[in-house]
Amino acid sequence: MFLSTLIFDNFAYEDTIISLPLLIWAIFIGFALAITSATVDKYYCRAFIKALVDSGADAQDKAMTVDALPVKGRRYIRWALKPGKHLSKMVAKADGADGNVVYWLPEEKRIAAELRYDNGEHPIRVLILCLIGILAAVIFVQIFLPDLLGMLDGLITQMKEN
Questions:
Q1: CA neighbours closer than 13 Å in the CB half-sphere of residue 74
Q2: What SS3 class is residue 122?
Q3: What global pTM score does this model have?
Q4: Which residues contact 47 (CB under 8 A, 6 or more apart)?
């Protein structure tokens, strides 16, 4: 299974500080973190957008603070609402009467926001299935990569002969 024991005619693999199996698992972890963070982002931002729509906050005079909305993950939502972040580009903000920042969702951005943060009906199930699928692919690559590299070596040898 370890590629450092395999010898190829047309290319060499030297097992350096980072072995190929370690690199494959690092890529899996990177994909898993990316998929998980995208799911969490869409989950909380969708809840915030939905709460704004449900409360009728579509103009500055109807704007609401993050604390006034019935949403979870307020700390994450506040981070996503910082200037330059993705959620801040979807909603409008202003200073409220009591000095708090209030937010509303302009009607012209409502459909775009709902589509952008649509996470499907069962985001956690989809996340788990994606992670299982990627894990299966990693195990497949771990098992069959030496054979695939051997076939690639044979193909390169044939191409050189012709």
A1: 7
A2: coil
A3: 0.75
A4: 71, 72, 73
